[in-house]
Amino acid sequence: MAITRSVVISMRLPADSGNRLKRMASRHGWTPSDASARLVEEGLRRAEFAFIDFRDSAAGRQAYMQGSTLAVWEVLLLARSYRGDVAAVAKHLRWPEAKVQAAINYAEALPDEIEEALSENTGADFDSLKRMLPGTVKAGSRRARKSRDAQASAR
Predict the structure, then answer these.
(1) Helix/strand/coil (H/E/C) assignment for every residue in 3-14
(2) How many CB atoms lie within 10 A of CB 84?
């Protein structure tokens, strides 16, 4: 979340909240000030956009759809594959149309954020995924798996 202009606002937090904020900041490599600014921005976005939540992911902190494992950019990618047909995407996901529209609304309001995520996804290949998720294996056809298994058992 890029912030171009800033304003200084002072606030008091309970000591426990301040300590939790410092731990979160440390975990992400942020300053406590950066962490608090991000959390405020995320809270404002949650209030402004229906069905939006924020989570840590292998690609960093991202906007997700509440009650699902899908990031907003993933819903937008699916919507593009359905040529923007909200009803078709909703049927595919078994979601109400309003939830799909919420993802589209968020993407339209914050196009740079979503386009960056889509670009990163396009640039991902098997090797980069394996670095992020070490247990990743290539899926093959049943015939290829049977052949591999037969070769392995013959050894």
Answers:
(1) CCCCCCCCCCCC
(2) 11
Q: Is the distance from CB of 78 to CB of 89 less than 8 angstroms? A: yes
| 70-103 pLDDT, tens digit each | 999 999 999 999 999 999 999 999 999 999 999 9
Round to whole Å and give the CA distance between 106 and 123. Answer: 23
> Residue 8: inside a domain, yes or no?
no
Token pair 């998720």: residue: 133
Nearest to 3 by CA among 26, 25, 36: 36
The pTM assigned to this predicted structure is 0.74
| Residue 22, domain extent | 17-48
Is 103 found in the same domain as 35?
A: no
